[in-house]
Every structure is written in structure tokens, then in C-alpha cells.
Input
Amino acid sequence: MFRVMLRRIFAHGTLVLFASCRPQPPAEPVHVAPEYVDSAECDACHAEIAEKYRLTGMGRSFFRPSVSNKVEDYQSKNTYHHTASGRFYTMIERDGRFYQRRHQVGPGGEEVNVVEQRVDYVIGSGNHVRTYLHRTPQQKLVELPVAWYAENGGHWGMNPGYDWQRHSDFRRKITMECLFCHNAYPESKKDSDRADMEAVLPGKIPEGIDCQRCHGPGGEHVRSPGLGNIVNPAKLSSERSLEVCMQCHLETTSAPLPYAIRRFDRGLFSFKPGRPLADYMIHFDHAPGTGHDDKFEIAGSAYRLRKSRCFIESAGEMTCTTCHDPHDIPRGEAADRHYTAVCEKCHATPIANHPSSKDCVGCHMPKRRTDDVVQAVMTDHYIQRKKPSRDLLAPLVEHHGADEKVYRGEVVLYYPPSLPSGAVTELYLAAAQRNSRQRLAAAVEKYRPKSGGFYFELAKVSPDAEAIGLYRKALESMPDYWPALHRLGLAYSRTGQLDRAIDFLRRASERATEGTVLNDLALIYRRLGKTSEALAALRKSVAMDPGLPHVHNNLGGMLLDSGDLKGAEEQFREAIRVQPDLSAAHANLAGLLMKRGDLSAAQFHFETAVQVAAPGETSALEAHMALANMMEMQGNLDRAAAHYMEVLKADSSSAIAHFSLGAVLAMQGKRPEALRHFQNAAEGTDPAIRQSAQEAIRALRRPD
Output
């Protein structure tokens, strides 16, 4: 009897559909920096400097890989097993080209979920780390998961942010902001120099940070050389000279603070050497005394230098070029001699009881493991009187999305050290306080800024009913900014205004380079029963952005609903191939396989859905229910009961789980426990489950 009631209730299947990730911060009318030229134009007149510069870290910051410039081991130690995710990565050299290949081990020992992508570009000189990029057919750049670290002679390891189970694998997209500090300015799609936009690069991509990052755009100088129409940082004030370096080396933290906000009326590539950095971006920091005063991160050399007594007491005279010639970086013993000579310019008089040494840097600027890239070791530019006694090279544990303690304290102005009081200062300070909606709301209400960026930031942290008006206000000054159109459409959707949602999502999809917008549009079409429109939007989304696993999963669900089992299976499997830990796709594929009668394969994917799911994820609960049902069919009542208990741990009010567990316990002869769960099920809101539970209670209470 209990099995009959359980089948009746459990007969329906459930598909798990994903909403997309959301775009991030704003930018406004873009001020494109004028007249940048190919840096090869500079070589004709400055050949000797150019040749030396190409050997520096900045000159080797971004390049195409070749047999001649590799430093990595592609032969003897070229397979890396990432235990947290259970994936194997093999780095391959084949016919002068380089690849990263991923596979997992299937239930029969076979290779499954194989992905191989070509290495098209390398970020990083190799002095500390090299990261690898693939250029997709859609002309986007994607970061590959494994990096090369220089420590201890070199080794392979996961990129920062990857050392956990649910990492980004081959899906981490490179934004224009990534390129800002890692390369010269590329030819990009219209409007894509906004920092948060993924890089869409149909034209030539330059290789390496070029002359113009420090000297300014060179077009006029190339046409009329020698007329003083190029910036020489050596002739700038010490403040402006330092800012040339600080445009990239003043990252106070890579954690979500924010460390800086680029002014909303400035384009990403609009900073020009010699102009005040504060007119381009404003830097922020953790409040003092909150446990972050000694943070040491990979892009914070200038931040650490500015803490030094040497820097402070120089009264602004000390800059990066006091020690570094950006055109020619010495190595080895030559570096020791050079940097010691720099120190002796101020410390010529011997210090009493100071040990004899010709390596000032080794003691006073020791190498240290960075907090955010835990496999990288760099020179600490905080000049200290005494070397810390602790082990600066001791291994560190990487923090990631699952365990990172996100800072929720006050964010303070860092650079410039002060700003004039008034609307602009208060608005940017309020925007930096990501955990204080009230402060930004008060500033916006008080000053009514013209810049749409403030309204966009406020809308992101506001309830949908309020966010709608704020997004509309933001769009007044940046009408083509598709993330605002996208978010506005979603806000209308969540408030039940589906026609308006469709209108704004359509407008966003016409401008977006990401398939997420079309995915969200498809989900609304699906809610309205417009199946053909939903399918068309999802197909267009996967064509535009084939690396979005949740879109493949959603398309599979739509095809399954329409009876196209073959097409649905293809999409579920593609979702899993792209993201092996996508629990929803495993659960959906398992349900399809179970309908087809392939119970062994279905069980494997249900079990995988449970293993890879985040705590409380809906797909895991459905998989537990399905596995319990399968275990019961096989007569394994103990395992069936265990799976139902897992559901109740996550959702103690689940009437179907209470009823199902009660049925299993009754079959095991455990009447008191069964009655308790049937009673819980009888208090639920589902009338069918409630009625079945009441029948079960009456049956159990009848005398034998």
C-alpha cells in the first residue's frame, strides 16, 4: 500500500532551471584615449631602449607562446591532478603549439568530460607566475585553469581562486579591466572599454605593456617627433611620476572592497600620464585596525612602498624610479649591487653594529608569499628596519567564495589622501561602502547627481520596487549600458511585470556580448508559455556564448518538455562537459536516463548531483529523493531512508520527504517512527500528500 501511494505522489519529475549570473559595476559615456599607435612605431627611433625594455617584466607581460619563449615543463611533469574537484589537467606541446586538456575518470575508469583548449596568449613574464588565455571563435579571451609558478624551480598549479571544488575551470572570462594592467590598449569592440565588460577583441591584440602606458598616446609624436608632444615621466613632478606606476601597482587589495572606483564619467583607457590619477580613479582601503594593516598582495608594490619610513620621510621625493629603471631591470648579482648603491645614497654613513652586507634588499625588503596568490613569492616593497621573525615563505591557504570572510567594515579613502568636501567626495565614499545602502541612498537623495553610475550602484542593492526607478534614472545618462537594461528587465520580472521585463531584456540582448541576457529572456518566455520564443532565445544564447553551462541545461529542459529526448540529452551532457560540477544538469540527465530505463547510468548521475551540489541546492534534494526511490525499488530500505533523511536535514518541512520516509519505516516495521513522519506530512499544504498521509495513519493505527 505504501509503495502505491509513494509512486502516485512521486510520479512527476522536476527540472532544475538556472538563472544567470549578473553583470557587475557601471561605466558611462566612454572617453576613448586618443591616438594610440602600434608600439613598433616607437622602435624605429628608440631601438636600443626598446630592445632592453622587451626583456623586462612589463615588456613580457602579454605574448603569444612559442617554443623559443617557454620556461615551463611540458614533458616530464605535465599532468596536474586537482584533488578538490577530481579533475586531471594535462599541459601539452604539439607541433609548436600549446594546449591545456581536462578529463575526469568515469564509473568504468574511462575518461569523461574531456575539454582541450589551445593556449593563444600568456599573461606574465614567468618571473613569478604565468597564466594562459584561450581566444574563442567569438573573439573573447578565457582564462585556462592551470598556471605555471616560478617558485622552487617552477611547477604547475591552479590559478588564484581555483583551488576548490566549484571553480571556474575553462569559463573565467577576461574583462577589459584585466587587460588594462596586463597589456597595451587593444583594438576592441565599440563601447567595450568599459571595465566590467568582457573583452571582445576582433582586431589585433598587442603583446606587452607598451611605451604609451608611461609616455602617453604617441600618434602626434610619431608624426612630429622632437616637439615635446610626448610625456617624459622623468620630467614630471614626483607626485605625477609616481602616479604613472600607481595606475596599476596601487591595488590596496584584490578582495571585494572595492579597492578603487574609476570615476563614472571616465572610460577605461582614458588615463594619460602626467594628469592627476585622482581625476581618473579614487582608491580606498580597509579602515585601520580592522586586521588588514599588514596585507601583502601581488599588485600592491606601491601600496607597500608608501607605508615605508624611507618613502614618508623623503617628503615626496622617493618614487618607483628612485630604484627602478623601467627600461632595464638588472638581475642576479648586478641587481644586488644596483639596489644597494641606491640605498647607500641616503645611508652612506655606516650604522653601528650593522652586519657587513652588500644585499640591503634581502634583509629590509625580504621576499614574502603573497596573501592572494598563495603560490607566488615576491619582494615586499615595504622597507622595514628589521626583517620579521616569522617564516615569510610558509605555505598559505587560499580563500575563495565558500570560506572567505568578506569584509563588512568601514571603507576609507586611501588615494588621494584627501578630497575637497562636497557632493562628489561624499557620493564616491558612499558608493565604496558596499554594505551601507543607507549611506549611498542618503547621498544620492541629497545631491541628485547627474552621473548614472551612482543610481546604478544604488539600484543593485535596493529592493526591486525601488530599483526599477533607480535603473531608469541611470539609463537617462547611459541609455545603451546593457547591464542596466538587463537588471531593469529582471527587476520588472521579479515584480510580475513580464511585458516590461521582455521589452528591456530584448533591448539589452541587442547590445550584450554575453548570452546570459538571452537566457533570462527565455525563462520569461517560458513562464508565459511562449515555447518557440524561449527555445529560439536559448539557441541563440548558446551560439553566442557556448561556454555557459546553465544555458545548455535550460535548453535541455525545454527540449525535454517538448519531447525531444535526444536533443535534451545532448544539451545536458554538454552542460556537464562545460561544468562537471553542475548539479542541476546531472539531476536532469539522470531523470531522463531513468525514464529511458537506463537505471545504472541514472543512479551514477543522481549520486554525482548529490556529491557536487552546494549545501541546500534544489537539485541535490531532488537527487536524494530519486535515489531513495531507486533504493526502495531495489529493496535497500536502509539506504532509501538515509536519502530521505538528507532531504529533511535541508528542508525539515518537506511533506513529500516525511511521507516517503514514513512509508519506508512502515515497511521496516518501525511504526512509531513512521507515524511521526506521516503526521508531519499530514500537516503539509499539498492536499494529495495530506490525504495519503491521513490514510497511512489510519492504516497503521488499525489493529493487526
Observations:
- The longest strand covers residues 97-105.
